[in-house]
Amino acid sequence: MKTERQKPIKLYLLTGFLGAGKTTLLNNLLEILKGERIGIIINEFGAAGVDGAVVEHHGLKMIELNNGQIFCSCLEGDFVKAIAEFSEMPIDYLLVESSGLANPTSLDIVLSEVKKLTGDAYDYRGMICVADTLQLLDLVQVVNAVREQIVKSEIILINKIDLVEESVVEAIKEKIRELQPDARIYRTSYCRVDPEILQTSSPAVRHPHPGKVVSSFSRPVTFLIETHEAVDPENIRNFVTAVEDDALRIKGFFLSPDGWKYLDAVNGITRIDSVPEPKVGPGIVLISRIGEKLWEKIPPAWGESTGIKFTLTQKQLFFPPSK
């Protein structure tokens, strides 16, 4: 039965490249909105629902869309249907965390389709982009998705400002202004934001911007390592060190001798944290920087680092070129 509502649902999209801090931002927003009725859509590029398992949703309504990115034809229809499904639920906010590889070129088409299905059920409040100070200036030159994420955003967080010099932050701000002059820009560490960030959002004007760049990430490949044996965290660190130059992101859950751990490695920074047993089970996802070539490097690196049996699977996703 469709829910009768007094006010439209506030819809926010969260974007940013791999490892920028989107899931951290989502958890921070959930804390800010504690007491509100919230729906969540999480989109992951790989098959394993890692981000969904680490979001502190505490019983909130959540839908996961994996194996692709929500603005691609492979998932775009499911994305629209998921938003429409939430329109019939008693929620006040819908937060969507997109894949780090998502290219929001088709955002306006998606919003138009949502309106056809749901009428005035939603108040689209804008896209929040997390810009990683450690890699944005390099990525924006070679990855179309990163440029489009900035262009389509109303709010942009320059995140991890504690890890770089002020001159880098200023250079990033200048690049953002070049691509999206009307965006509201905030400087953050660990995506810590004030509640006011959600109070005055509204869709920004889209400005023409420089043409497409040649991207080496048009056909991303992901690999999944699975083992049910306990692995020493130090051995996992050794494995990450052996392959991190060839991977855009490494993350997932593994069992150690003293309990479950969550691994997150990006840009030369590796975190391993203790966590409760995940619902998704053990599995470490690698998003390749060198395509299928990483397949040959994983087994010897894993074997030398851990000496533990494992299974390795690969998934190749093809994204159509942006129009």
Number of domains: 2
Quickly name the level 1 CATH class of the largest domain: Alpha Beta
Question: Distance between termini?
Answer: 38 Å
Percent of residues in helices: 25-40%
CATH architecture of the largest domain: 3-Layer(aba) Sandwich
Mean pLDDT, as a whole number? 83
- If you consult CATH, what is the topology of the largest domain? Rossmann fold
Name the shape in a single word: globular
Number of helices: 9
The radius of gyration is 19 Å
Strand order of the largest sheet: 3-2-4-1-5-6-7
Order of helices and strands: EHEHEHEHEHHEHEEHEEEEHE
CATH superfamily of the largest domain: P-loop containing nucleotide triphosphate hydrolases
Low-confidence stretches: 46-54, 205-218, 316-323
- Major sheet: 7 strands, parallel
Structural category is alpha/beta
Total DSSP E strands: 13
What fraction strand? 25-35%
Describe this structure in words.
The structure is a single chain. The strands form two sheets. The protein has a seven-stranded parallel sheet with strand order 3-2-4-1-5-6-7, with helices on both faces. 28% of the residues lie in helices and 26% in strands. The model is unreliable at 46-54, 205-218 and 316-323 (pLDDT under 50). β6, α7 (166-179) and β7 form a beta-alpha-beta unit. α3 (76-86) packs across α4, α5 (136-142) packs across α6 and α8 runs antiparallel to α9 (294-306). The chain folds into two domains: 9-198, 3-Layer(aba) Sandwich (Rossmann fold); 221-316, CobW-like, C-terminal domain (Hypothetical Protein Yjia, Chain: A,domain 2, 2-Layer Sandwich). The protein is built from nine helices and 13 strands. By secondary structure, it is α/β, with parallel strands linked by helices. The chain starts with 8 loop residues before the first strand and ends in a 7-residue tail after the last strand.
